[in-house]
Amino acid sequence: xxxxxxxxxxxxxxxxxxxxxxxxxxxxxxxxxxxxxxxxxxxxxxxxxxxxxxxxxxxxxxxxxxxxxxxxxxxxxxxxxxxxxxxxxxxxxxxxxxxxxxxxxxxxxxxxxxxxxxxxxxxxxxxxxxxxxxxxxxxxxxxxxxxxxxxxxxxxxxxxxxxxxxxxxxxxxxxxxxxxxxxxxxxxxxxxxxxxxxxxxxxxxxxxxxxxxxxxxxxxxxxxxxxxxxxxxxxxxxxxxxxxxxxxxxxxxxxxxxxxxxxxxxxxxxxxxxxxxxxxxxxxxxxxxxxxxxxxxxxxxxxxxxxxxxxxxxxxxxxxxxxxxxxxxxx
Length: 331
Description:
Blueprint: H1 42-45, H2 52-63, H3 72-78, H4 83-95, E1 99-105, E2 111-117, H5 122-130, H6 180-184, H7 204-215, H8 228-243, H9 248-256, H10 267-277, E3 298-300, E4 307-309, H11 326-330
Antiparallel strand pairs: 1-2, 3-4
């Protein structure tokens, strides 16, 4: 009963083929593919100069059937990367020989771009040809090679029946509809002119005050930062408010209060709308005030030499004895 069973395994067998399990790093658990697979060379997947985006994009392009669209917009709709990153990755693949893009003119005069995907770059093919090794064909095979060219298997266990790959259908990428709120907040084209009220008398000092007010709006809210061109276009609208007896503080409050919580996409268009929609009415008409009475000039009395006001020189009221004097009549 105390005899040790030395035939029992000391540990569970490893699934890794080989002499020993590596102490660190990646461990592969591989299974042999028999259908729906693409052969990609290690010269691509372990390339020292290509970016990870370019390597993954090249593997994806090589897995597509002939005639599939690989334009920048098609790939951007399929993957989360932006059009700029995809365009840069395509340029990397073209620079290293994995893509060839040529412009061809059709019989109807239209110019199109032809893209050829190479599973090996051209410089690698020339190197292998100089060494006497066979270069793989440029076109993909969908049918198994002839029996005369197949390598002889080492054992019957390695024999795999040739399978005809079924035709793959490339589904168009699904585009999500743009929400209505996002469409409303989309900025307008800068080619649309900004329409603002115009002052009746655009004095230079009035326009200067309006421009200074617009240039300082970003101190109240950083989202209202305007360019010099926007300030020049919006200044007449602010001048129209100032011309209607609205102070600069009131104009600033009307433009910066109650801003939308989702943000301002185009500050110039937003302010132009407020200057037009909230334009105050003209001030009420005020009749001119009566002119003050005109003071008569000072005169020296001919009798007592005292100063008095009269229209003409003569005597003062104390020295006058004749009421018919013309000076007395005017007084």
